Amino acid sequence: MKSNPEKEETFVPFHLPFGPQHPASGHFYGSVKVDGEEVVELEPYPGYLHRGLEKLMEYRTHIQNSVLVDRICVLEPFSNEMGYVNVVEKIAGIEAPERAQSIRTIMAELGRILSHITWIAIVSLALGLDSGARIALGDREGILRLNEVATGGRIYPCYFIPGGVRRDLPEGFEEKTLEELDYLKSQLNLYDSLIFRNETFVTRMSGVGIFNAKEAIALGATGPNLRGCGVESDVRKDEPYAAYPRVNFRVMTMKEGDAYSRVLCRRGEIAESISILRQLLQDTPKGKFRIKMTTRTPKGNAYFCCEAARGELCFHMVSDGTDKPYRVKVRGPSFSHTLSEFPYLARGAQIADIPAIYWSLDPCPPDMDR
Amino acid sequence: MSEEIISSLKSEFADSILKVFLEDKKILVTVKKEGFYDVLSSLKGMGFDHLSDVTCIDYIKEQEFEIFYHLWAHKKKLRVSVKVRIPRDSSSIRSVTDLWTGAQIHERENHEMFGVNFPGNPDLSPLFLEDWEEIPPLRKDFDTRKFVRRKYYGEE
Amino acid sequence: MEKLRPKAMIKSIHEARAWSLWVVNYFNSCGFIELFPWLGSGYDMERFGIRVVGSPRHADVLIVAGYITQKAVKRVRRIYDQMPSPKYAMALGSCCMTGGMYWDSYSTVKRIDEYVPVDVWVLGCPPRPENVGHGLMMLMKKIKGGFQGH
Fold first, then answer.
1. Residue A140 carries which DSSP code?
2. pTM of this prediction?
3. For B2-151, CATH number?
4. Looking at this predicted complex, what is its ipTM?
5. Does the CB of C104 have a partner CB in chain B at under 8 Å?
6. I need a labelling partner for A202 at 20 to 30 A (CA). Which of A366, B73, B79, C62 fits?
């Protein structure tokens, strides 16, 4: 929309800063070039959270790294741990016992539900739907308490280690988790009426930030962002790991490729995670929960991908025969979402739609910057 | 399906490919620098449409960088990793942004962290660090503990 | 100006300031994650008069939560300068105080008090919600006791 259609004006770009101090941006700076109300270009400037984790991991042993790796993405620590321990076990050539694999899957799925509920809270805050935010933040407490009962830490559990898990699940954990799952299932109905079927929310999210499957794949999209375009791709089904071969679940896909379909994919994933957890808690195998691993790993290369709540999280580790890794490369899902997809989707949108597009992609700046 | 891909790669690029084999349901290919772009282009044609990652490893003793391209085919559900070695000083390798748009940002990060040049990439400006005056930080000759002790803790 | 007012008025000014602390919306790193329950219905800080506001010009408190990189510290200082007096700052998490877990990182700042004068320190990695609340109460007590801020 040109400001003065009668006069012939030369285009003078106006730069609007989106972040890093902004109620709807997270710790990320996007310089938005606007013409009236329309976005001409968005240039991302990441790096406000860069601590050089990959360099730090080269100075610490594998066990010490299991504490550092939690902090790659603060909102879903279990996915980071899952990827890390699997890649170390691949290099070392060992396999964790069945009970440990089940426990890992249980905690990972709880972490997925936690991440999606936090995302519900943040997206409601960013769009101005305050009550959804406050209720969702209160619901997180139930899962954080389960984390604390099982592992001792609310946010950073440091629970998975190469060879298994640190300690066994305590008595009564299964019953407490099943109670919590019943509560979350009933809360989903509340979220539906309050947020997902709220007329304002649906209008703000529909028809905004659309891309089709081909564009999404070329930009490097993974996870719910790609499933919102109709591509059925989920690492838990394509390259199964941990206890996923034993459970049945659907891969949520939607056709339209706009912000609202991505939102619905995540909402469906919460329900699927609840069903996976119920299947796993029914028959957890008995046995050892940890096997010993040698401090030194043999020389080699290993690459492992796991499905985090945001998409594909990949670890590439190179070992040179000592007890410290030679090189670790972490590919966080938000790297492509924020730096490739977000500038592409923001082009041509209205300024007021930028938070809606940004949070429908569910970015997590720590795992982009590392 | 993996065997067909391996045999077709071996026959088509016999002089560029040094090694190709299947390990744990994943195809691993080692190529020479001269032919790597054609191999990647041919793999893209075979359906490997998702570029997961571009990793760089610094082998300082051998004075070489090793660059990995990890690819995934959505329809075939197969994974391929292609690795290529380039010399460490004046390191430069052709960009693959025209094959996968998402590669632009991976190469920009590797340029900043290792100093590898990717001619053909539209934008190689610094990504994470601001006013960085030392050598690229992920190189093996940059000792982060020595740097931090000197700069922040005032030790020598 | 404080000297011209009667004692009771000064005391009520301090009480008013303590019971209406507005926090600027700048949550940088993982140290803030246990401030989230205070925003929600779990712990609820609004009953103490603490709100999160969008603009630094409206705010009283800057909470520096978690590690700060060299790139971000210039922005933190700029936000702090834009806040009107009296203003207070709180350091949340071990990483901004001593370097913490990233003591050997080439891009994080090890001591935030070289850039911003800190009034309350809350340890932890991340500090529990109870610790964060204790820190907020300590700040309120300090202000009620006559702390003028910066």
1. H
2. 0.91
3. 3.30.460.80
4. 0.90
5. yes
6. A366
